[in-house]
Amino acid sequence: MKKISVLLTxxxxxxxxxxxxxxxxxYMKEGNEPIVRIETTSGDIIVKLYNETPKHxxxxxxxxxxxxxxxxxxxRVIKDFMIQAGDPKSKNxxxxxxxxxxxxxxxxxAEIKQNLFHKKGALAAARQNDNINPERAxxxxxxYIVTGTVFSEPQLISLESEMKEARLSAVFDTLARKHMKExxxxxxxxxxxxxxxxxxxxxxxxRKQVEESPGITFSEAQKQAYTTIGGTPHLDGSYTVxxxxxxGMETVEKINTAKTNRADRPENDIRILKATVIKE
Length: 280
Fold this sequence. Notes:
Mean pLDDT: 89
Oligomer: single chain
Shape: globular
Order of helices and strands: HEEHEEEEEEHHHHEHE
């Protein structure tokens, strides 16, 4: 009986190994995108990295190889929105430690492209807010995976309009801040004509910039994704999407349902055990 038990154990191990190798072979055949395995305390997540965002791709691979993500927490989890991880300070963080502050982290220049959007399963880079990071440069460490929700077509149309207005206002404010000295002089001189002329000029510049920005008008691919699998369309054009989940979405969804505290940190730590590049 003992010999039979040992033999059965060996067969199971071989089958498991073969299964793992088979999956790896599937990933190896998925185009020429790099593939990374993220082992977590809730299960594995396999992601591919887009070659269209080379700076983010190369940085993510570098951080994985250097072990930056090993032992870090999923420190921000918002149900039906996203799960965020990668803060190096989270490795030994106490329960009430504030996490996710990207101040002082090295940055990656934005690589925002309309064809790479926030569909369910998208891998994207976290960043600081526009008011202190108008170039929308990404955190060199922190990333998030989208869960999101499904939208109806009327909801997308309404959201598209809201996004355009919000972006227009933000761009106009940024342009106006660059002309504050000029605006101050005109106000001091009570030059209403000059102020109105400058306002018209800045509004025209803002509208042109917004219309040329990626993600402002939803493409057919975006509409198809957001009305079927879902996502977070209001983030399009503002954050760099640089990859997507190819296996393990059930793990992402499991993490996304974790009970969290007021700071959106899971009450029971969910940790990345190890991240590994399985195809480069």
